[in-house]
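Memo to structure team: turn this sequence into structure tokens by end of day. - J.P.
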Amino acid sequence: MKPSIRIASGQGFWGDLIDAPFYQVTEGQIDYLVMDYLAEVTMSILRKQQKKRPEMGYASDIPSLMERILPVCIEKKIKIITNGGGVNPIACAEAVKKVALKLGIKNLKIGVVSGDDILEEIDALKAKGEALKNMETGESIETVQLKLESANVYFGAQPIVEALRGGADIVITGRTTDTGLTLAPMVYEFDWSFEDYNKMAIGTIAGHILECGAQATGGNFLGNWQDVPNFERIGFPIAEAHPDGKVYITKHESLGGMVTFDTVAEQLVYEIGNPVEYITPDCVADFSSIHLQDEGNNRVLLYGVEGKEATEFYKVSCAYSDGYVSSGTLTYSWPQAATKAKKAAEILKNRLQLLNLSFDEMNAEFIGLNACHGPLAPRLDEDQINEVMLRFSVRSKDFAPVERFGREIAPLVLTGPPAVTGFAGGRPKPSEVVAYWPALLRKSMVTPIVSFVTLGEE
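Reply from structure team:
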């Protein structure tokens, strides 16, 4: 058993800093690189891509990233774990295999975790008594079933551990919890029992700290953010885990950012819901039991976390088509910028009504005035405001009114308030609204599938 392992966050979402994984494997010593690519809506985006090109459906920048980091990871014996396989993890593994062959790599074993996609199994599951009703509203899934774009179960750390025990150098999964990516190496390296709920909880919370990348090292930090050094090469967090369950959050010293009690604590309260029952497939973690200790020098100790047995359910993330949305913007300048923008919104709304266009929602935002804080924003004197951007949005189940709205923005330039600019790029185009449907599914109804793609000898 190793005395400790270093698990480095490489991506907080699909589209995060493309150089971050490279920095993590080259700027210091780590044992694992974990990369989280999947937000809830990402699965539906990947499904649409797969419909157009069946060989796709995964985070498309993974192959080019692997071309940069694979030689380093093999030389340093760094294992890679990512849920960037999206809705097609096997295809993603095959793409990585092609990269390895191109680089002349002789031996590589890629573990693939699949089985989370239940889109084609909805009817069969309903027949077995699985309601898959909306967790928040209680609605029946039948109200949206015909519009479903994706339906994926959140697996946890267990199938990743199985892949690591099978000798995988890289593990590529579909919809896996963000926290499971970090917990799995600890279970594998330290031979933790999945029934040791306190260990499961501390690994889960370490994963929660790592899951958003640099948000734990000073990015998006509400505290003394101006003291965060070198944003240009900000370091992503690293969890230095020990067999006894202590975890130190740190980063590479050569990179920017900072790890303090405050940066870690702020990340801990991100998207947690009930703090005493943070439910994952691996355990139920109690955030109120967390102990943090700032050790200085970009090291924060995490310890003493308590957990309970996991529930009998997996969470299911579904996405469905829910109409169309469009937005257009115009900028009004001093004097009376806010008055002009508000009048323009009123004119536009009245014109849409005169056209008998029906929308589920219309919304006017006044950016530079109160768009972020709404009624809580302080009232400003008109003379204090240099410019205000009007952003007007509409939403409808039907395409036609949303498309027609797009023709009404440009005319405001010459048929509305004066001193207007900022119209460019042509008419606003409708885009599809993808809505989220969270549900529960008994774990006995679905089984993770672990397979391998290999180069060289077994």
